[in-house]
From TrEMBL:
Keyword Metal-binding assigned: no
Transmembrane segments: 12-35
Protein name (Swiss-Prot/TrEMBL): Prohibitin
Record's subunit section: Component of a prohibitin multimeric complex in mitochondrial membranes.
């Protein structure tokens, strides 16, 4: 059987097309059979026949069966997560708390995490257990104790939250209280209490000052009384000579004081002594 040139060309084109299709399928299959796990990541392999495989795939390039197996990549690096809660204290005061949590998955438990929680495990677990732990711990303290015993409160929250997170195969590297505030009524009450305490301290100082002044006045009066008694006794023993001596001493002091004053001159008179103030400029 002799084929025409057109038939030969058609067969050749068909074979080329089949080869191209086969090559393309082979390339697609090869690409689909390779996947890469980057640094700081781990992968869980899902098999359509056997389900989730019970091992974790590490970093690097790996092979799988195309269209039968599929990788799910997890970020295993520590990530921050904020948890906010409004809860009541032991004395029925409302408090706003915010926690900053550094979390990561347990690498050896990634298949179980994928089975039960999926890839967004932290969004599903941390808000609920965070609120639960905060409400349980804060209810053990009064409002003012949350400030005075903050390190103890933080330690209780950290230990309780780490224990609860471990039940879901989540590792918490750090838990810290970043924000703590009270309602408007409690804040106003605290402010009024501080003002009252300051007023009380000020009153104590005024009372102490008055007491010191009273004691000083008593001591001063006792001293004056004792001085008067001594003068009286001396006068009774020596006559008025002591008084005249005191008058002479006072006069000497007055004279010395006036001599140092340039605007005072002493003018003797025939009948009496006069002290006249004179301004040297006139």
């Amino acid at each position: 059987m002799i084929l025409s040139r057109a038939d030969l060309a058609g067969r050749f084109i068909g074979r080329c097309f089949a080869a191209a299709v086969g090559f393309s399928f082979g390339c697609v299959t090869l690409v689909k059979s390779i996947y890469t796990v980057d640094g700081g990541q781990r992968a869980v392999l899902f098999d359509r026949i056997r389900g989730v495989r019970d091992f974790t795939v590490g970093e690097g390039t790996h092979f799988l069966i195309p269209f039968l197996q599929k990788p799910f990549v997890f970020d295993i690096r520590t990530r921050p997560f904020a948890i906010s809660s409004v809860t009541g204290t032991k004395d029925l005061q409302m408090v706003n708390l915010t926690l900053r949590v550094l979390s990561r998955p347990d690498i050896n438990r990634l298949p179980e995490i994928f089975r039960t929680l999926g890839q967004k495990y932290d969004d599903k677990v941390l808000p609920s257990i965070g609120n639960e732990v905060l409400k349980a711990v804060v209810a053990q303290f009064n409002a003012d104790e949350l400030l005075t015993e903050r390190p103890h409160v933080s330690a209780l929250v950290r230990d309780s939250l780490m224990r609860r997170a471990s039940e879901f195969d989540i590792v918490l590297d750090d838990v810290a209280i970043t924000h703590l505030s009270y309602g408007a009524e409690f804040s106003k009450a605290v402010e009024q209490k501080q003002v009252a305490q300051q007023d009380a301290e000020r009153s104590k100082l005024l009372v102490a000052k008055a007491e010191l002044e009273r004691r000083a006045a008593i001591i001063r009066a006792e001293g004056e009384s004792e001085s008067a008694k001594l003068i009286s006794d001396a006068t009774a023993a020596a006559g008025i000579g002591l008084i005249e001596l005191r008058m002479i001493e006072a006069g000497k002091d007055n004279a010395a004081s006036m001599c140092r004053n340039g605007s005072v001159m002493y003018l003797p008179d025939s009948g009496s002594n006069m002290v006249v103030g004179v301004n040297p400029r006139h």
